[in-house]
Amino acid sequence: MCPKLIKTTWFGTFVLDGKDVVDKTLFAPDAQTIAKNLRAMSEGAILEEERALYRKHTPRLTTDPRLLSLGASLDTQDFTPDPRSYNLSPALLADASRLVGEMKAKREIGPDMFLIQLLHSYDNMIEVHNLTLDRLKGYYGLHWPELLQTLPPETYIGLIVKHGDRASITTSGAAGLPDPDHTLGGEIPPSDLETARDLAKMLLDMQALRTDLESRIGKRAAEVAPNLTALMGPMISTRLIMLAGGMQRLAKFPASTIQLLGAEKAMFRAKRENQRKPKHGAIFMHPLIHGAPYWRRGKIARMMAGKAAIAARVDYNKGESIGEALRLEMERKAQDIAKRHPEAPKRERPQMEKPHEKGRERPRADRQPRRHSY
């Protein structure tokens, strides 16, 4: 007599003795239930129907590696019960498969995807802000270029919105204004002045939007990746998640990949042109790297990427809060690197041999001078 075998198909779980069905538990004949079971099986879960049948019959074999944890051994038997024997149509499997695809798509849209869209919106807003500022400079620079060269943008934008032309700004009594009598600019027509003021108003609105987006990114990053945010800050953490394509992918990346996220073009260019490879990508904007001298940056980036990899994995698996401890350890190790490498390393230049004239032999110490007869 053949040993019993437990096998699960898309429509039920069976205990088989050869080709004979000893016992079975059929799933509910609706696409939603079957899709839910198929999804659970694809993730390696064991169904309650399988546990119940195993406790009842204790089969020794299985064809599914997923069921080895129950105690059965792997077998290669290929017999599968026919769903038509139980009045089940293949169309039901097609509907269930479609639902499984929808479940996978919905599951992939997590909070990290919305965080990535927030950062994309922030980057696009910065780009539009810079373009609008260039247009304002082009417009108002024809009227009073010295104002734009003397005051910072956040100051002269407000003056343009509030007062407008050169004469009104001068009579406002604002501090630090250039001499309006010695300007290279000309008079600006009223219609063009209104255009310049509209551009300045847009810049003020975008500055307020930038502050709001930064606040939203900070709050959402602390929810999605609390440890990584405590370690790297919200903007760098969000950018790493965006460059990786999500928290799941970031959690699977090794530290060496995280270290170079954002430097892909430089890496491929270095390989193509046989140049020196980059040492850091997006994490370069962290103060510990950005503020360090060049000879320490690679070492700090390597250490920081290792901490970021640990924080990302803990965040993805909903682990405990370790971000603050990682941050303190990272700062301590950065100080140790600074103590071990206080000065730039001395680079020895190779001794270049003097080129010899073409066709003339290189002199050797053991060679006797050539004698010429005259």
Description:
The protein is about 55% helix and about 5% strand. The protein has 3 domains: about 100 residues, Nucleotidyltransferase, domain 5 (2-Layer Sandwich), CATH 3.30.420; about 110 residues, Helix Hairpins (Orthogonal Bundle); about 120 residues, Nop domain (Serum Albumin, Chain A, Domain 1). The protein has about 375 residues and is mostly helical. A 5-stranded mixed beta sheet has the order 3-2-1-4-5, covered by helices on one side. The protein is elongated.
The total count of strands amounts to: 5
Supply Rg.
Answer: 35 Å
Largest sheet: 5 strands, mixed
Helix content estimate: 55-70%
Low-confidence stretches: 352-358
CATH topology of the largest domain: Serum Albumin, Chain A, Domain 1
Structural class: mainly alpha
Head-to-tail CA distance between termini: 113 Å
Oligomer: single chain
**Strand-residue fraction?**
5-15%
With strands numbered from the N-terminus, the spatial order across the biggest sheet is: 3-2-1-4-5
Instruction: Specify the overall morphology.
Output: elongated
Query: In CATH terms, what is the architecture of the largest domain?
Result: Orthogonal Bundle
Text of the CATH class of the largest domain: Mainly Alpha
- CATH superfamily label of the largest domain: Nop domain
Question: Could you tell me the mean pLDDT?
Answer: 89
Question: Layout of helices and strands, plus pairs?
Answer:
Blueprint: E1 5-8, E2 12-17, E3 20-26, H1 31-42, H2 48-57, E4 61-62, E5 73-74, H3 90-108, H4 111-140, H5 145-150, H6 153-162, H7 166-171, H8 190-224, H9 226-232, H10 234-244, H11 247-252, H12 255-259, H13 264-273, H14 287-290, H15 294-316, H16 323-340
Parallel strand pairs: 1-4, 4-5
Antiparallel strand pairs: 1-2, 2-3
